[in-house]
Amino acid sequence: MTQYQAVAERPDAATGAAAPLIFEQPLNERLRTFLRLDYLYNQALYHNEKASQWGSRAAVSSLIDILAITTRGDVRSEVLKDIERHLAQLEGFSSKQGVDGSRLRALINNLTRLRAALSAAGNSYLQPLRDSEFLAAIKHRSAIPGGTCEFDLPDYFFWLSQDAAVRAQAFNEWLALLRPLCDAVAEVLWLTRQNGRARKETAMAGGFAINFDRDTPLQLLRIVLPHESGLYPEISGSHHRCSVRFLRWQGLAARPTQTDEDVPFTLITC
């Protein structure tokens, strides 16, 4: 199945027009994991700020999904490797002319701080979450449609019935264990996007093929389309080659179809 992330930016303040849509496609499993973690972490933060039982439920659901991802591999080690790679690249700029030295030092200091926090967390930094019987019961019941109802998990219902400040405090303690990893992931993704190279392209009759240089492996594709185009890309392929089909949105009741028109778009390779 094609995986992409559509990011709707805020409307342009000057014109009031909706900003372009940016669709993202990770080109390796590591970056796919990073994007999912960042998505879930931001979702958890958003719902945790809602002073409601439903907000707390949604935040806990995101937390459990994050734990599921982190058990599939050594994500912490992968993030540390990426931080080291970015630090080496940034330090290489220090001897080049025309580089903003203060900006460069700020980036290096921030990466160094994130590396130190993640390293200090240790290999067992998420063990308290994994050992929690309370969260384990919710995770187990979440596999059943509607399995976290009050009659299934009375202790969960009791916790949800507590004052919003009590729930927020508990959730913030859980998030504190995740923060070194998720803050580092967010910074790695930001740097990856900042290193992207943009170029204008045209998909003839709605189709476009992208071949990559094997000596310069890419991490991420970003496709930018006008908000009002009524189109979205379907991307498939690997880190060697990708194909893109631009589909026209036909509403919820109709199947989208590939456009037969030429589609101008911006391609950003990271």
Give the helix/strand layout:
Blueprint: E1 5-8, E2 21-26, H1 29-48, H2 53-70, H3 75-92, H4 101-121, H5 127-130, H6 133-142, H7 154-160, H8 164-194, E3 197-203, E4 207-211, E5 220-225, E6 231-237, E7 241-248, E8 257-258, E9 263-269
Antiparallel strand pairs: 1-2, 2-5, 3-9, 4-7, 5-9, 6-7, 7-8
Mean pLDDT: 88
Number of helices: 8
Output the CATH class name of the largest domain: Mainly Alpha
DSSP E strands, number? 9
Q: What is the third-level CATH name, the topology of the largest domain?
A: YacF-like
Question: N- to C-terminal separation?
Answer: 22 Å
Low-confidence stretches are 1-6
CA-based gyration radius: 22 Å
Order of helices and strands: EEHHHHHHHHEEEEEEE
* Biggest sheet features: 5 strands, antiparallel
List the domain count as a whole number.
2
Shape: globular
Going by helix content, strand content and strand pairing, the class is alpha+beta
Label the CATH architecture of the largest domain. Orthogonal Bundle
User: What is the strand arrangement across the widest sheet?
Assistant: 1-2-5-9-3
State the CATH superfamily name of the largest domain. Answer: YacF-like
What is the share of helical residues?
40-55%
Determine the strand fraction and express it as a percent band: 15-25%
What does this structure look like?
The two termini are 22 Å apart. With 270 residues, the protein is an alpha+beta fold. The strands form 2 sheets. Strands 1-2-5-9-3 form a 5-stranded antiparallel sheet. Strands 4, 6, 7 and 8 form a 4-stranded antiparallel sheet that branches. The longest helix has 31 residues, at 164-194. The radius of gyration is 22 Å and the shape is globular. 48% of the residues lie in helices and 19% in strands. 23% of the residues are buried. The protein has 2 domains: 34-193, YacF-like (Orthogonal Bundle), CATH 1.10.3900.10; 198-269, YacF-like, CATH 2.60.440.
